[in-house]
């Protein structure tokens, strides 16, 4: 008999267990990078504060869509309801903060609106998350290869632990095949990939990455969010996916205020850099927990 194979990522990851009365950060993670990337944040939180990651990739209807063409048999609302049910099971009655990175911020915002008053967090923290508002609800063909290739280079650098720097001007107007040659050359030069990495192998990784983005874009396109009944805190990376908009479109959804902060790193490395984790830790700490001495507002 063959040993049973792992069927996929877990939905819930307890990266730090809370001490009595210290509270927990619940963070919605959309995959792309493994949930363990948030260990930098767990280490930066004040002593005794817990960190639980809710990994959307642990839901087959979401996670498998990145491997099967980018069309998910679900909706933002259904994902939020599933996580809200899971959170109700996990919640120990103590203080907590709800956070979400990237597309996880969209689901976290929808999830917060489903919470009964007794379970609502005191704030919602969004980590380089693009709002599901009309200006950012774009058709698939708006995601041009030059844009996607630049994002892929950032992702590849974070995944491999070495920066992959490709000048945006060199990617402009290029197709996927030509653009991936530039990405591969930059990745080999930095040591992120072996010099003999095959272009077809890199193309396969790129296609999976893009299918994940298309999945999120297609889930967001028909979604109509409600304005948030909580104060919103938005942390944008120095190299955000959308560098020209410091609000990432969240203004119309934040009638109770939108607090803006910046973090070192790019959209992906902001999750693993200790200096970025220090910034984020000071913003996600639950109510009543003192501000950690090493966190810096930016």
Automatic annotation (TrEMBL):
Q: Which residues form the signal peptide?
A: none
Q: Please name the Pfam families in this protein's record.
A: Thioesterase
Gene3D superfamilies attached here? alpha/beta hydrolase
* Thioesterase TesA-like domain mapped to chain residues: 30-284
Q: What is this protein called?
A: Thioesterase domain-containing protein
* The organism of origin for this protein: Kitasatospora paranensis
